[in-house]
Prior knowledge:
30% of the residues lie in helices and 18% in strands. It has 2 domains: 7-72, Orthogonal Bundle (Arc Repressor Mutant, subunit A), CATH 1.10.10; 84-169, no CATH class. It is built from 6 helices and 7 strands; from the N terminus they run αβααββαββββαα. It is an alpha+beta fold and 177 residues long. The strands form 3 sheets. It has a 3-stranded antiparallel β-sheet. Strands 4-5 form a two-stranded antiparallel sheet. The chain has a two-stranded antiparallel ribbon with strand order 6-7.
Amino acid sequence: MSKEKGSKALVLDFLLTNVGVVLESKDIQAASGGASEWARRVRELRNEEGYQILSHKDRSDLKPGQYLLETTKRLPAFKRGISKETRARVLERNGFTCQMCGVAAGDTDPFNTARTVRLTMGHIIDKSKGGSDTFENLRAVCTNCNEGLQNAALPKPDRNSTACADSQSNPSVVCHK
Length: 177
């Protein structure tokens, strides 16, 4: 009896057969077998397995929702280093809401009403740019914002309002209104 491939293996196969080709997110999701968390699989392949998968955050000629596997050469990968305790503290500090668009965990997903909002840990300074998995460098982010849907997401709160919200649970944050 043969075991079916998981969504990450399906995404990797699709990327490897399209090295050097700009791919659209909808095509990657379709290749994943329709997995709702296809973008997480892409991030795992990039961050944990070292594949050089680029997005609009890496190259200005790529639009949001476009990805490119430049080469099959892999880079040293990042290890997941966020403990359950740190994750819980970040979620509590951020009031269980996305720090980019303001939706709360469990709310109806504004892009897919059949789903509820899930929060993930987002890095303020990305790990690829030297950021760490520390409490101070993490924020709660919904899967939509974390998957690069910023161009379609609700308006983001400005830094001052986010800092002021943090000041309520962290006395070391100074709020200037």
